[in-house]
What we know:
2 strands, mainly alpha, 110 residues
Amino acid sequence: xxxxxxxxxxxxxxxxxxxxxxxxxxxxxxxxxxxxxxxxxxxxxxxxxxxxxxxxxxxxxxxxxxxxxxxxxxxxxxxxxxxxxxxxxxxxxxxxxxxxxxxxxxxxxx
Length: 110
């Protein structure tokens, strides 16, 4: 298990005890991580396809984030490429209200 991957019960940004919500926020706050999860909300993608849909994200960063997501049990890899696990799909469901709110917020501040 990668030591740097934020997980509940381990010290994370904002929490000495690793409260689950703080571990989740630390994880999804990492650069590119949320974009990768968002792009995996559909069918599985190969590494190269995922790199392309993420705007040609550096392979080093993509590999690091995929490793963190696998340790966090949000992404798995198989014959078809990378896909969200059941927990990863639950995370998308939890984020959808935030996406909806952000669309309303964008209209209000423009």
